[in-house]
Write a structure and sequence with these properties.
Elements (H helix, E strand, L loop, with lengths): L1 H10 L7 E5 L7 H5 L4 E5 L3 H13 L5 E4 L1
Parallel strand pairs: 1-2, 2-3
Length: 70
């Protein structure tokens, strides 16, 4: 997953003013790396447990420009 996340990050960097919407993002493998380059990332996931883990992942990596929705 790390290699894939790095590849996603390099595809189209949104820039510091960019906004990203990711639907069904699980625990954040792809959107959290994008958040290091975007101004704001919104993630929507169907499972509350996955959202809780995504929040933990964001906090553990010092990423604060993300918003989570179930």
């Amino acid at each position: 997953n790390r290699g894939m996340a790095g590849g996603v990050r390099g595809l189209r960097a949104p820039g510091p003013r960019g906004r990203v919407l990711d639907l069904f993002w699980g625990i954040g493998h792809f959107p959290l790396p994008l958040a290091t380059r975007a101004g704001h990332v919104v993630g929507v996931e169907g499972g509350a447990e996955a959202v809780a883990r995504a929040r933990e992942n964001a906090a553990a990596n010092g990423i604060g420009n993300v918003e989570f929705h179930v």
